[in-house]
Amino acid sequence: MEENTVYNIPPLPVDKDFHMFVCYARGDLEIVHILVENLEKDGLKCSYHERDFTAGHSILTNMLDKIRKSMYMLVILSENFADSGYAQHEVAEAMHIKISEGYSIIPIMIEPCTLPDFLKHTTYIDAQEKEVNEMHKLVIGTVTNHQTVADFQNVTGISIEVHVKWFRERFGSMARYKLKFDDMDRQMIAERGIQLTGHDLDEIETIVSNSKLVRYLHLFDNFGLVTMFIWFLLILCCAFTNLVLLLALLERSKKESEQNGNIIVMLMFFEVIIVVTIFLGFCCCHKSVCTKKKPFTYDQQIWETLHLEKKLAIFNVGARERQLIVFYVPASRSLMLMRYDFKPCQSFFTRRCERKENLRKFQMPGESLINYTNRLFDSFLRSYDVHMLRHSSAQQKRHKMANEAKCICLLVEEMIC
Ligand SMILES: [Zn+2]
Question: Which of these, 401, 398, 261, lies nearest to 325 by C-alpha position?
């Protein structure tokens, strides 16, 4: 049976004519033919030198023109490519455009070969084991599932935010908020180079879903309604007791009806007092009622958030090695997984400590600068300041972050100075 997959190919933006500009060495032309034919069959428009260049224009003009009209540049990495100075020159030119115009490069390695220096830090599609007729599927997978594998995996500050959602375990059970990574989340996590195994993700799901903050989120949200409901039940109980008492008293003696009437009035009076007292007591316990700005349960939620952060901190213990920061964002009710390459920040901060005495003021006797830096970074990761990494800042920056936030070495410096 023939496999018939329908891909979700992104539409071309108005200023683009092609999905892919294919860059290759002449020796691989045969493979390029097959690959392009398959890609175009599945709906990806391609452009390449042998077929699409306009006669009469210089190669460079042609190439730049086609690159600018394409969404991605597909680079065929092979032995031929490694030997071809010209093909490499083409890619190097494209890299310049990439930097200035935010263009994406997707290298695909079709056989074992040495990577050119300028692609050393870019992740490539590994198609060495694939049949030529199958290679296009990997390329399509890359284009349809994300923006660019290559661009994501080495970027510091790139993150994934997964919201807690409303779930009902089974029909009839009570729905409540939970954190669940679906297949798409898990795929994105892998593609963005976030180093968490399936087991880690399950553990994070459990920690977040079982925390009191998330478990009682629906109660926190509807605190007024819940209180009203309890209060209403209380009044019903009182009314029921009254009725029973009334009937019993009427039954026992019909003569002393006047006295009975007094007893009932007094009973009701006491019951009203009890209900009102409970209600007032309840309000007084939540001092925020008086300010009217924050919800009843504000303080409790803050407390539970801190508790959850403490539990999640176990994932930040190895953050520097794993290049990963995990934290819960109460405002958007989501878990944030951020990929972070600490090395540039760590080594820069260590060097700065050598030069600036005020940065060394918390250094302990006998502690090396590297250990000192690590200790400061770890305490930053455990503090609430870690949330600063979420917000882009218009102020001075140091190491490049995907979200334009300040980098850790700068934030740590601000923290201790
Ligand atoms: Zn930095």
Answer: 401
Each domain of the chain, given as residue ranges in start order, spans 18-152, 219-299
Instruction: Please give the distance, rounded to the nearest whole angstrom, from the Cα atom of residue 162 to the centre of ligand 1.
Output: 26
Its pTM stands at 0.55
Q: Please tell me the distance between residue 276's alpha carbon and the centre of ligand 1 in angstroms.
A: 58
Ligand 1 centroid–CA 318 distance in Å is: 18
The CA R_g of the chain, rounded to the nearest whole Å, is 33
140-149, 245-254, 322-331, 375-384 — which is least confidently predicted? Answer: 140-149
- Report DSSP state, residue 156: T
Grouping H, G, I as helix, E, B as strand and the rest as coil, residue 55 is coil
Q: Kindly report the backbone phi and psi dihedral angles of residue 333, in degrees, each rounded to the nearest multiple of 5, phi listed first.
A: 50, 55
364 Cα: distance to centroid of ligand 1 (angstroms) = 23
Give the range among 40-49, 155-164, 171-180, 408-417 with minimum mean pLDDT. Answer: 171-180
CA of 374 to the centre of ligand 1 (A): 13
* CATH superfamily name and code, 18-152: Toll/interleukin-1 receptor homology (TIR) domain (3.40.50.10140)
DSSP 157-205: TEEEEEE-EEE-SSTTSPPEEE----HHHHHHHHHTT----HHHHHHHH
